[in-house]
Amino acid sequence: NVAHGLAWSFYIGYLKFVLPDLHNKVSRYSSTRGNLSSPRLHILLPLNAKVPAKPEEEDTNVVFHENLPELERDTAGVRNRSYKNSVYKITQNNEAFSCVLEYATPLLTLYQMSHESSAGFGERERKQQVLLFYRTLSQILENSLECRNRYRLVLLNDEHTGDPHYLSREIIQH
Amino acid sequence: NVAHGLAWSFYIGYLKFVLPDLHNKVSRYSSTRGNLSSPRLHILLPLNAKVPAKPEEEDTNVVFHENLPELERDTAGVRNRSYKNSVYKITQNNEAFSCVLEYATPLLTLYQMSHESSAGFGERERKQQVLLFYRTLSQILENSLECRNRYRLVLLNDEHTGDPHYLSREIIQH
Ligand SMILES: Nc1nc(=O)c2ncn([C@@H]3O[C@@H]4COP(=O)(O)O[C@H]5[C@@H](O)[C@H](n6cnc7c(N)ncnc76)O[C@@H]5COP(=O)(O)O[C@@H]3[C@@H]4O)c2[nH]1
What are the residue boundaries of the STING ligand-binding domain, all occurrences included (chains A, B) (predicted)? Predict the structure, then answer.
């Protein structure tokens, strides 16, 4: 089950060490650079696995603000491998909400695999795999001391076509 | 099958765009910074999935030289996500061999998953999963126009304990 392994990889190879480090950066950020409305990493999970390069492409109310200071680690032979997170400002009516957000990168893999015949699964199974990814990741993160309370999983329905501000509403509503 | 998904993730989320970019950097590098003995990315695959942070930990004949210029891309909401590769100098007798190398990072996930009971597989299956990762990745890369001839998969036997220069020999012999 592809989604099961990708959820574990996302935890072991990224969230497990990025979330504690982010926690520290966010406390320092709020005291110097202006407040974040939420200290949590908002992880966006579109059900159709369609992940844009920039959330602005989905909703013009979601605007890049700046990157947090990067995390660098020596890992697997790569010296100073860099991990970055981006702060976004989200506007709704006249309110502004700012937070660290990104799409769940492994969904890009699920999407592209569903278009490669040799990868072994197609579009019909893709939605099931996204849901399995979401359920597996939720369980892992709930049981993780390093990650607990430091993230928010935002599942995005793919049946909102025509609503240009669905993304910003979903993020703020959470 | 976890290894199948991790091999696809390694290709789709990394090698597919890093290898063509590396090809360009390597041609520029060889003309200005001293020759690389091989232009290919050497991808190290230890059968026991034990991946050190630095190859020097495995073999003192493998020494970090410098990083190539980084690649930056906007992806999945992360602005200017950075991708780096490291050049190593490998000495054997009095010869020096230099190349870009790194361990296959998804093996770190396989290793750690085999120690988490809730992940669903143990140490016995791990070697099978490493072999499946290797076979799947080989097939994907052989059929990829972007990647063909730009990499070398170096499978590392785990039965060389006591040989402090196994790694350097394996890399040079290839
Ligand atoms: N948002 C985000 N920012 C990051 O910096 C990052 N780094 C990893 N990940 C995701 O976490 C998981 C575990 O990562 P791992 O390194 O084991 O596998 C990685 C790794 O083997 C390789 N890879 C990706 N980026 C790099 C990189 N910069 N250097 C070396 N290898 C890399 O290709 C795999 C798939 O990458 P992504 O498909 O981007 O998603 C990964 C993956 O789902 C990230 N996600």
Answer: 1-174
Place of tokens 């054997």: B92
Q: How far is A88 from chain B (nearest CA, A)?
A: 9
pLDDT at B59 over 70: yes
A78 lines ligand 1 (CB under 6 A): yes
Query: Is A79 within 8 Å of chain B by CB?
Result: yes
Residue A105: list chain B partners with CB under 8 A.
13, 75-76
> Are the beta carbons of B173 and B98 closer than 8 angstroms?
no
Name the band, by pLDDT with cuts 50, 70 and 90, for residue A122.
confident
Helices (H) and strands (E) in chain B, counts: 5, 7
Residue B156 CA to chain centroid, in angstroms?
A: 11
Is A106 touching B (CB cutoff 8 A)?
A: yes
Q: Give yes or no for a contact between B36 and B89, defined as CB atoms under 8 angstroms apart.
A: no
